[in-house]
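Sequence and structure are no longer studied apart. To make this concrete, we show below a single chain and its fold as tokens.
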Amino acid sequence: MSMPPRTVLKAIVLGDTGVSKTSLMNQYVHKNFGEQYNATVRPDHWVTKEDLQIDDRLVTLQIWDDAGNDRFQSLGDAFYRFADCCVLVYDVNVMCSFDTLDNLHEEFLKLAIPQDPDKFPFILLGNKIDIDGGNCRVVSEKKAKEWCAAKGNIPYFETSAKEDHNLDAAFLSIARAAMTNQDEIYLGVPEAVPETDQRGDGCVS
């Protein structure tokens, strides 16, 4: 039996330092949560999720973390190049991490230069919903969904890296959206016109 076709997708994870991007990535890929992670010191920090099954295709999802550090912006397209989707993360208990989302969204589009910015797949994760049973949160689900609606109906998931809540569903959602977008771009490329069809009406053989 032949193996299903495999698609490799690159996801960029953006968010302020402290929103637990690295914890999210490690919990999703390795099912491992640590209370403390050192801030990522290199812009090539990434993990790989193998063998996601989406419809009749296998997907390898490469997930890259910017560590929330402004110095990585100087790398420009070296970090964002060939991204297929973007995961925006904020801490539901920290308002300033939510307030930076506009800048992160805008900066990504400026540096990644996607073929169709209006259709490029984004997803928003409101992380750390487990803290103090939700009593510490300052960003409501309604406020987050309103932000997503204003950005073109970006999908929204509330997550907990510690409790592994909603991570599989969130990353499956963004991988599926990225595949759909990739297919639409591929199908939208016009086929090469044979030389015999390139002559104008006034040409003769």
